């Protein structure tokens, strides 16, 4: 583990919180109480607009990760780490390993922030870079390219922040990502990941935080609203569809 908690120090809490991002309940809760990371793999699960990306972006910024971190940064140089409004005030409590990594030279930093959109761009842009990944990603499908990128970048135990990495993946590829996530957690890495995937969220041993109108709620896979919806939908799609189509 590298990061044990994200919080906003009292001195940085704005007096007037009637504007974005403070109006997002999940953000309001982090401002008031912070959020703890207790296991190597943590998933943030919640509806569209519940604040997952706002949180993971700020957490990535707090660890000075950008979307091209890790080895990519070494090859291509770091992008300008512009801060989001929440990133400006969010602070991370680190473990001694986390603190050592943050204080060390930039190139020794292991980890990166992966957004679904930029990961695909990376597979295209970096595909031909020798020694970066073994596969020539220009000859892989979208999902295959993704997995190649994941595998290559996750070799080092570092701090990985991800936003919907399942986007390009089929059911079976998602299962491979579960295995990879699990392996990362076991190998001393730490993952904080926003997801809509009930498959990804089922990674053994992971901590699950449900994000929504209520703010943040630690829960189990079986109790996730997302899992309940999928279960009911797959059992009986018509029950949902008749409300939508009137058929
Ligand atoms: N730059 C911004 N300025 C103002 N509001 C924003 C901005 N970015 C996001 N929001 C709003 O903040 C809320 C949370 O957005 P966020 O992108 O964090 O949600 P999310 O949980 O990641 O959703 P999704 O599952 O669709 O990715 C939404 O209501 C969104 O419209
Ligand atoms: Mg999002």
Give the low-confidence spans: 68-78
Ligand species: adenosine-5'-triphosphate, magnesium ion
Largest sheet: 6 strands, mixed
As laid out across the biggest beta sheet, the strand order is 5-6-7-3-8-9
Q: How does CATH name the architecture?
A: 3-Layer(aba) Sandwich
Task: Report the structural category.
Answer: alpha/beta
Strand content: 15-25%
Gross geometry: globular
Q: Oligomer, anyone?
A: single chain
CA-atom Rg in angstroms: 18 Å
Q: Assign the CATH class.
A: Alpha Beta
Q: What's the number of extended β-strand segments? A: 9
Overall number of structural domains: 1
Secondary structure: helix percent: 25-40%
Order of helices and strands: EHEEHHHEHEHHEHEEEHH
Q: Give the helix tally.
A: 10
Task: Provide the CATH topology.
Answer: Rossmann fold
Mean pLDDT, as a whole number?
Answer: 86
Spatial separation of the terminal alpha carbons: 51 Å
Write up what this structure looks like.
This protein has 247 residues and is of the alpha/beta class. It has one domain: Rossmann fold (3-Layer(aba) Sandwich). 40% of the residues lie in helices and 18% in strands. The chain has ten helices and nine strands. Strands 5-6-7-3-8-9 form a six-stranded mixed beta sheet. Strands 2-1-4 form a three-stranded antiparallel beta sheet. Strand 6, helix 8 and strand 7 form a beta-alpha-beta unit. Helix 6 (116-126) crosses helix 7 (142-153), helix 7 packs parallel to helix 8 and helix 9 (225-235) crosses helix 10. 41% of the residues are buried. The structure holds adenosine-5'-triphosphate and magnesium ion (MG). Adenosine-5'-triphosphate (ATP) binds at residues 20, 24, 46, 48-54. Magnesium ion is lined by residues 52-53, 163, 194.
């Amino acid at each position: 583990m590298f990061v044990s908690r994200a919080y906003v120090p009292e001195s940085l809490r704005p007096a007037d919180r009637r504007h974005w991002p403070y109006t997002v309940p999940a953000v309001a809760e982090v401002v008031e109480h912070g959020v703890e990371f207790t296991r190597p793999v943590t998933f943030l699960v919640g509806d569209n607009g519940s604040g997952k990306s706002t949180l993971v972006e700020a957490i990535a910024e707090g660890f000075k990760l950008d979307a091209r971190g890790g080895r990519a940064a070494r090859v291509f140089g770091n992008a300008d780490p512009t801060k989001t409004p929440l990133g400006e005030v969010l602070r991370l409590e680190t473990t001694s390993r986390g603190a050592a990594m943050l204080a060390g030279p930039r190139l020794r930093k292991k980890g990166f922030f992966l957004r679904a959109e930029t990961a695909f761009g990376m597979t295209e842009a970096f595909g031909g870079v020798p020694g970066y990944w073994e596969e020539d990603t220009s000859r892989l499908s979208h999902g295959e390219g993704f997995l190649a990128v994941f595998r290559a970048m996750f070799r080092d135990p570092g701090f990985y922040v991800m936003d919907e990495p399942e986007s390009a993946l089929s059911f079976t590829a998602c299962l491979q990502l579960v295995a990879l996530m699990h392996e990362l957690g076991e190998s001393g890495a730490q993952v904080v990941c926003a997801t809509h995937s009930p498959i990804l969220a089922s990674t053994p041993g992971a901590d699950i935080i449900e994000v929504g109108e209520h703010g943040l709620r630690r829960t189990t896979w079986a109790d996730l609203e997302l899992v309940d919806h999928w279960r009911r939908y797959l059992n009986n799609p018509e029950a949902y569809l008749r409300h939508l189509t009137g058929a």
